[in-house]
Amino acid sequence: MKKLVVFSGAGISAESGINTFRDSDGLWEQYRIEEVATPEAWAKNPELVQRFYNARRKNILEAQPNIAHQHIAHLEKNYDVYVITQNIDDLHERAGSSKVIHLHGNIRLAKSSGPDAENTREFYSVEGAELNLNKHFCRQGYPLRSHVVWFGEAVPAYTDAQLCVADADIFIVIGTSLQVYPVAGLIHDIPASCTAYYIDPKAEQQHLPAQFQKIAKTATEGLSILVEQLQS
Ligand code: NAD
């Protein structure tokens, strides 16, 4: 079976009703990064950070996977499929994808806010939407924070992702502005022999290696076209 790797960003979940960060109605329009998504924000105002992510978790729990997530899950019938996602939602898993690497964490999980939090691989599941500073603690007694990689923090799963793409036969990048580093660098780690696609409504504006075929469509439209092509 050929190895097919999907690299997804916030755009794949936009049609499920989860805001992206950089589109004009995106989340960054309403919040400043440094107030909610950095270690400094947590040190200064953990209540605000917790509230921000509790709202994200509620939105994600209410959302459903869309046809794009489902197409990717169905590709497992014919391909050895791996999903590498920048998303903190779990819509790939809920659509049925079995191998998912979360580069920036998974909001359905929590981790310690203690000194080793950045690199920990010890996670706690979150019941419902709310993590509470006064109620939820790790084994060492620190409040639990969402399992989300903040700006300025290490990306422990990045090495797994690099290894994963290194022998891909087919690589599909979908719904990402490729502005968040280091993870955006992944597009340069695929083999020269790999067939690569980039699906995004703003595909034409993106500078990409010549190896990539651009599909300037939404995730659901673009994947419907590509899946048909891959299966014929
Ligand atoms: P981004 O907001 O920087 O870019 C979103 C991209 O999606 C843009 O290129 C846009 O053109 C495209 N897009 C918009 N609507 C689309 C659609 N219907 N179909 C396909 N593409 C569409 O997002 P990013 O590149 O993923 O980086 C932002 C960071 O924000 C990520 O690291 C991620 O962790 C985080 N984030 C996650 C979620 C989530 O978990 N769903 C949501 C927002 C942000």
Please outline what is shown here.
By secondary structure, the chain is α/β, with parallel strands linked by helices. The chain has helices at residues 27-30, 33-36, 39-44, 46-62, 67-74, 91-95, 158-165, 219-231, and strands at residues 3-8, 80-85, 100-102, 105-112, 124-125, 144-148, 170-174, 195-199, 212-215. Strands 3-2-1-7-8-9 form a six-stranded parallel beta sheet, with helices on both faces. A three-stranded antiparallel beta sheet has the order 5-4-6, with helices on one face.
- Which strand order does the major sheet show? 3-2-1-7-8-9
Instruction: Tell me which ligands are bound.
Output: nicotinamide-adenine-dinucleotide
Helix content: 25-40%
Number of helices: 8
Distance between the termini: 16 Å
| Helix and strand composition category | alpha/beta
Low-confidence stretches: none
Secondary structure tally: strands: 9
Shape: globular
Give Rg in angstroms: 18 Å
Could you give a short account of the major beta sheet? Answer: 6 strands, parallel
β-strand percent reads 15-25%
Average pLDDT reading: 94
Secondary-structure element pattern, one letter each: EHHHHHEHEEEEHEEEH
Report what the structure shows.
- There is one protein chain.
- The chain is built from eight helices and nine strands.
- With 232 residues, the chain is an alpha/beta fold.
- The chain has a six-stranded parallel sheet with strand order 3-2-1-7-8-9, with helices on both faces.
- β2 (80-85), α6 (91-95) and β3 (100-102) form a beta-alpha-beta unit.
- α5 (67-74) runs parallel beside α8 (219-231).
- The chain binds nicotinamide-adenine-dinucleotide.
